[in-house]
Design the sequence.
C-alpha cells in the first residue's frame, strides 16, 4: 500500500473512532441526563410525601388530599416514561397506594382546648404548612390549576394560623398547671381573640366553644361543699 493509501486509511480509521467516541459519549450524556431527571423527580416526590405526612389528618382538607394524590401520580408517570423498570413500578405502586389510603378526619376532638395533640405536632404543622405553601407557589407558575392552588394556599394559611394558636394554648395550659388559673386566664383570652380574628368561624366554632367554657370555669370556680 502506498503512503497516500496508508494515510487515507489512517484518516478513515481515526474518523470512525472519533465518530464512535462521539456516539458513545452522546449515549452516556443521555443516560446521565435521564438519571438526573429521574433523581430530580424522585426528590420532588419524597419532599411532597414528607411534608404531606407531617400534616395531621385533622388539618388536611379532601381537596389537598386529591391534589397531592394527582400530583404524585403524574410524577411517577413521568419516571415510568423515562425508565419503566420493575423497581420503579413497585415504588410507584406503593407510593400511590399510600396516598390513596391516607385518611382525612376533620372532626374536632371533643372536650379538648386544642385541635392538635402537643407542642411538637403544632410546630411540625406550622413548618409543613409553610413549606407546602412555598412548593405550591412554585408549582403555580407553571400550573393551569391556579385557582385550585389559590384555594389550597388559603387553607394552608389557616393550618399555619391554627397551629400557631394551638401553640399559644399549650403555653396557656402549662401556665395554668404551674402558676394557677388566675394567671393563665389572660393567656386563654388572648388565644380566644386570635381565634376570632382568624375569620374561620365554621372551622373554629367548636374550639371557641371549648375555650369559652374553660375560661368561664376558671373565672367562676365552683365552691366545694364541706
Sequence:
Amino acid at each position: 500500500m502506498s503512503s497516500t493509501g496508508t494515510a487515507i486509511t489512517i484518516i478513515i480509521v481515526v474518523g470512525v473512532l472519533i465518530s464512535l467516541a462521539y456516539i458513545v459519549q452522546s449515549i452516556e450524556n443521555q443516560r446521565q441526563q435521564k438519571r438526573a431527571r429521574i433523581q430530580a423527580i424522585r426528590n420532588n416526590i419524597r419532599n411532597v410525601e414528607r411534608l404531606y405526612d407531617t400534616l395531621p389528618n385533622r388539618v388536611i382538607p379532601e381537596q389537598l388530599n386529591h391534589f397531592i394524590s394527582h400530583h404524585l401520580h403524574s410524577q411517577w408517570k413521568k419516571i415510568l416514561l423515562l425508565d419503566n423498570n420493575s423497581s420503579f413500578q413497585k415504588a410507584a405502586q406503593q407510593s400511590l397506594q399510600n396516598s390513596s389510603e391516607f385518611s382525612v378526619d376533620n372532626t374536632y376532638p371533643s372536650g379538648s382546648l386544642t385541635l392538635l395533640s402537643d407542642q411538637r405536632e403544632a410546630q411540625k404543622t406550622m413548618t409543613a404548612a409553610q413549606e407546602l405553601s412555598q412548593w405550591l407557589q412554585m408549582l403555580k407558575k407553571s400550573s393551569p390549576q391556579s385557582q385550585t392552588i389559590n384555594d389550597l394556599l388559603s387553607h394552608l394559611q389557616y393550618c399555619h394560623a391554627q397551629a400557631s394558636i394551638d401553640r399559644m394554648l399549650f403555653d396557656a395550659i402549662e401556665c395554668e398547671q404551674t402558676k394557677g388559673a388566675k394567671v393563665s386566664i389572660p393567656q386563654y383570652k388572648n388565644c380566644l381573640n386570635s381565634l376570632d380574628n382568624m375569620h374561620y368561624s365554621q372551622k373554629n366554632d367548636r374550639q371557641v366553644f371549648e375555650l369559652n367554657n374553660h375560661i368561664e370555669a376558671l373565672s367562676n370556680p365552683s365552691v366545694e361543699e364541706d
